[in-house]
Design a protein that fits this description.
90 residues; mainly beta; four-stranded antiparallel beta sheet; three-stranded antiparallel beta sheet; 63% strand; elongated
């Protein structure tokens, strides 16, 4: 797996590639505003700030054999503990 990151205007472009034979294939192209990005065996987990400072959005992109790409598998909200909450950004 090859991960490419490019900063943009208020977003980060996240590209993921894989090698198939001798060819490089793009398997994910997504714009995110990440607090963190975690790569696991077959998943990429992106944690982003939610509108509410009390929550983070956690999106999991997983390998899909049928499409030969990574697709958005789940999106969830994680409540932050009081000492980890962000201040209102307004």
């Amino acid at each position: 797996m090859i991960v490419g990151i490019e900063p943009g205007q208020n977003v980060l472009v996240l590209w993921i590639y894989t090698l198939k034979g001798r060819m490089v294939n793009q398997i994910l192209d997504v714009g995110v505003t990440p607090l963190s990005v975690e790569v696991t065996r077959r998943d990429v987990v992106v944690r982003e700030p939610a509108e509410s400072p009390d929550y983070d959005i956690c999106t999991v992109y997983s390998w899909d054999d049928r499409s030969g790409a990574m697709i958005e598998k789940t999106v969830g909200f994680d409540e932050l503990r009081p000492k980890h909450r962000r201040r209102d950004r307004s």
